[in-house]
Amino acid sequence: MNAMNQLNPNPVLPAIDAKAFRRALGNFATGVTIMTAQNAAGERVGVTANSFNSVSLDPALILWSIDKNSSSYAIFESASHFAVNILSAAQIELSNKFAKRGEDKFAGVEFDLAQGDAPILKNCSAVFECEKYDIVEGGDHWIIIGKVVNFHDHGRSPLLYHQGAYSAVLPHPSLNTKAEPGEDIFPGRLYHNMYYLLTQAVRAYQNDYQPKQLASGFRTSEARLLLVLESKTATCKEELLREVAMPIREIEQATEILAQKGLLIDTGNAYELTDQGNRAAKMLYQIAESHQEEVFEKYTDNERELFKKMLKDLIGI
């Protein structure tokens, strides 16, 4: 201990700059949630929050925090249950809607009522239904602890928040292992078999492409439908079944979800994209075309065209 601290065992530390502190915290990437609840009087509330965290596995406990000045706190305090809706990467608009103040946030939003009448939102990455367990004071926030009584794991790629902006999940580049220079990765007779090479090529292409597509928040079935409908290669539902090459159950499930999101409408004989659906499809095409450029940049235009011609011949186009 130096002489200064011996004379003053409790030195005054410099005040924390709140804005700088918030910026520093922004380096920690978090998921984005919408916390929802409804009290016995039927008052409903929902707020966007990124303070969600797990506490315990046994019992299953989670927590999040809310500003003491929030007008929504009174309903969370009086409600017996609340829900943690973990948003998917396709739910930025929903996040922004519930982050606003002074409006009916549930207007036009589809939801179901869970235990304790807590609203649970559609098409999230996951949802946790929680019984209020405890509320603890934490500076200028209340820390709300919930006991998980049920959960729904939908497996969608989550929406992230990092350095003040929305982001999405992609695999780390170091996980993309490639062959070393000079290494023969095609030894033996098997690697002269066209069927084997084609299936391995598709698998390798998907390994890098699918995570980029899933980061958009759309499942593979939903993305495929959007791309096919935007291209207008299917004029009716029967042709759509052929183009997307998916089981009818998958198509029905995907079209129902896309319709709920306002991305397509069912005209009876066919499905048509809305303006919002066309924008989503164009975003997916940009992801696909960017990846295609990345993969084939070392080949000439003539080589690319020849490769596409060979594939089309094999398909029978």
From TrEMBL:
Keyword Nucleotide-binding: no
Record keywords, A-Z: Oxidoreductase
Annotated ranges, domain Flavin reductase like: 25-168
InterPro entries tied to this protein: Flavin_Rdtase-like_dom, NADH-dep_flavin_reductase, Split_barrel_FMN-bd, WH-like_DNA-bd_sf, WH_DNA-bd_sf
Cited Pfam families: Flavin_Reduct
GO molecular function terms attached to this record: FMN binding; riboflavin reductase (NADPH) activity
Protein family membership: Belongs to the non-flavoprotein flavin reductase family.
Protein name: Flavin reductase like domain-containing protein
Origin species: Acinetobacter gerneri DSM 14967 = CIP 107464 = MTCC 9824
